[in-house]
Automatic annotation (TrEMBL), chain B:
Kinase listed as a keyword: yes
Record keyword Kinase present: yes
Entry's Gene Ontology molecular function annotations: kinase activity
Annotated protein name in UniProt: HprK-related kinase A
Keyword annotations from UniProtKB, A to Z: Kinase, Transferase
InterPro entries recorded: HprK-rel_A (IPR027600), P-loop_NTPase (IPR027417)
UniProt lineage: Bacteria, Pseudomonadati, Pseudomonadota, Alphaproteobacteria, Sphingomonadales
Length: 88, 286
């Protein structure tokens, strides 16, 4: 089962600006501009390791959302491409 | 190098060396009231040299060099040596400055608070800076604003104001007692004439200011104003900075702080009278 994890929290400087959140990733020196749900996703993941199903359940509970595992997988893959989340 | 001059602009010291005496003579004349670098040690070195042995004599021209260089830079005619020196100093700042977040912006100050104006070339940064300084503002710089990531304050960089094309006559009219350099015709940027910042700007060049208003002016449109979202301000600031990426985390901290704390407006203007009226009104409403 594929698991995902975000890097250490200390690697990130997070600046919620408005509809966008600016995020500085210390290891890469890259600045990202994120929109919902990416900041919420990273926040929920914390430093833990998650399967899509576990994370979908956690998000549904926290944000009162309909579960959509396919959409969540797509968002996670975007964060993997951005270097903010690792496939584990 | 056979000819050299050292000077300090705001907190930054330069040493400019040249094969030929003409550019140094022009620099000395216009920068005569600028201090020497702190302890005589420059932060950046600029070199102006002939492209090849023959070009010292045949259509004499100058190449730009220094601590940081652009390999394929084209030489400029010797008559534009002053412009070459200015471009070389800007290049050292743009590529080498690591202490401050460098914003491609003009800045003026009143009562310890700074107005920053940033925009593309031709947006009117230099012209508005020069005209505001003729109306009681302190000119902090027409090209670079230096933002200290630790304090959030803006440091001045009052190099010679670089006026281009139509702006030359307009500023000559507005600043009749200003000290201007020679008119440089047909440079790669059009006609250029430099204005020496006034005595007040030079006397206070070491005094930083607290950023109070960010403007993104655009010339050639009907008067209009738009409040900018913080995220748009943040992105525009990173684009307006020449060293945001190189600076890393301190750059993020400085840009974030400006975006979060300083009111920002995009302003369109058809002529400088309109721009000045908008600037004064926005400043009064802070």
């Amino acid at each position: 089962m594929t698991r995902f994890r975000a890097g250490p929290r200390a690697d990130l400087l997070v600046a919620p600006l408005d509809a966008f959140t600016a995020l500085y990733h210390r290891p890469s020196g890259i600045t990202h501009l994120l929109s919902t749900p990416a900041p919420e996703l990273l926040d929920t993941m914390g430093e833990g390791e998650w399967t899509v199903a576990e994370l979908a359940a956690a998000l549904a509970a926290r944000f009162d959302l309909e579960r959509d595992d396919a959409a969540l997988t797509a968002r996670l893959e975007e964060l993997v491409d951005a270097g903010l989340v690792e496939r584990w | 190098m056979r000819h050299a001059h050292a000077l300090r602009i705001g907190p930054v010291g330069f040493r400019i060396g040249s094969d030929r005496p003409e550019p140094i003579r022009a620099l000395r004349a216009l920068y005569r009231d600028y201090p020497a670098p702190d302890d005589g040690v420059p932060d950046f070195t600029v070199r102006l040299f002939a492209p090849g042995p023959l070009r010292r004599f045949l259509r004499p021209s100058v190449m730009i060099g220094g601590d940081f260089m652009i390999p394929d830079a084209a030489p400029l005619p010797l008559a534009q040596g002053l412009l070459a020196a200015e471009m070389a100093m800007n290049l050292q700042m743009a590529l080498g400055q690591r202490r401050y977040l460098l914003l491609h912006a003009s800045a003026v100050e009143r009562e310890g608070r700074a107005l920053l104006m940033t925009g593309i070339s031709g947006a009117g940064k230099s012209t508005l800076g020069a005209l505001l300084s003729a109306r009681g503002w302190r000119l902090m710089g027409d090209e670079f604003a230096l933002v200290d990531p630790a304090s959030g304050r803006v440091h001045a960089f009052p190099r010679l104001v670089s006026l281009k094309n139509e702006a030359i006559a307009e500023v000559e009219r507005a600043v009749p007692d200003g000290r201007f350099g020679p008119l440089l015709k047909d440079t790669p940027k059009g006609d250029i004439r430099h204005l020496v910042p006034d005595a007040r700007a030079l006397a206070a060049m070491r005094e930083p200011a607290i950023p109070a208003l960010l403007l993104f002016p655009r010339f050639g449109f009907e008067p209009a104003q738009r409040v900018l979202a913080r995220s748009e301000v943040f992105v525009r600031l990173t684009q307006a900075s020449t060293n945001y990426v190189a600076l890393g985390e301190p750059g993020f901290v400085a840009a974030r702080r400006l975006a979060e704390e300083v009111p920002a407006r995009a302003i369109d203007y058809p002529d400088t009278a309109s721009a000045l009226a908008q600037v004064e009104a926005l400043w009064a409403a802070l």
